[in-house]
Amino acid sequence: MNTKNILDVYLHGRLAGKLSQEKSGILSFTYDEAYANDGKATPLSVSMPLSHDTYLDSIARPFFSGLLPDDIVRTRLAEYLGVSEKNPFALLAEIGGECAGAIALYPEGEKPPSGISVAPEILDEKKLRDILELLKRRPMLAGEGDLRLSLAGAQDKIAVGVIDGKIALLKGGAPTSHILKPMIERVHDSAQNELFCLLLAARLGLSAAKASLGFAGDASYLLVERYDRIMENGGRVRLHQEDFCQALSIAPEKKYEREGGPNIADCLQLLERRSARPAVDRLAFLHLVIFNYLIGNADCHGKNSSLLYRPEGPRLAPAYDLMCTTVYPDVQKKLAMKIGGEYDPEKIFRRHWHRLVADTAAARKALDKDLNEMARAIRTEAAALAEALRDQGITSPIIGGIREVIEKRARQVMEEF
Questions:
Q1: How many domains does the chain have?
Q2: Of these residues, 189, 299, 368, 370, which one is catalytic?
């Protein structure tokens, strides 16, 4: 008989089930009996409805692996912790205490800390500067005291709190409120790029994560407010979420459509089946596709959209990780998801956009209207935003480059009208 390693999986601080790893490395997940019997309990994933059955590796691995960082960050993290990057169980055993959403993982029998017994560590400018440097060597500060933080994505980052305007490391299991993202090495002014794109999305009426630019000495960083943390009854509580790859049981290493990841139709179908307000969220997702095209974001893959679990049920989460990749000459220009069967943004025309909606005159007319209106509005809003940021002392050649990309893409759309 194979010996099992087991992690207790908590959702909203309640034992939801157990993640098991066989000696062979195979993963499985089983809901706790009391949790499965509670008709009001929230499932971990739309791919794992409440059940007394065991979810096998093909379902469990994509979901739990999706809680971990991607790509180079995951490799560096595994090297630092002395475990295999292909062993999500071992990684989550080390850093799974504060994940995206409301999930926490602990060794079997160990309960999550209360979060109120450990004082936060307020970071002065020197400490913050040191942490920004340390993150380059130690992803998510793994091994730093009792910090057990795991964040998905391919960029160095750390979850923090903001107390009286000061950044703090929260310990003892307390919910964090913000994601701190240092500059990406070899990606010029990445923080200014993402800040501009997130603020621009909000100006155009899209739901997007709130962000601000901060400095520690000469080092800048992006501070993004967590939309999966809210204030309730005087305290901060977690909201559950899962990205589209987790919801569709697609491994994070296959997040790009050309590698087997979700395409736009898959995302729209997921929202149709699972969203509490499918019509609203499908339209919002299509607007986000248009926006990413116009800003030149070629990296909008299946892990860059999520379901956020609200009281009425799953909803499309606010946009996050928005960045103009086209402005960097050495970054892949091919889209993460095809638009109307085309990966090359230079070859996308009205007929390609029409393939994203129902084959009716009314649906095509509505999409044409949305395309034309956003193409017209984005140029004006981009100019106004650049001026507003300049008034705040935030400037970068990257912002000018983004505006050039927007001008070209918007013109390409509008010329067909």
A1: 3
A2: 299
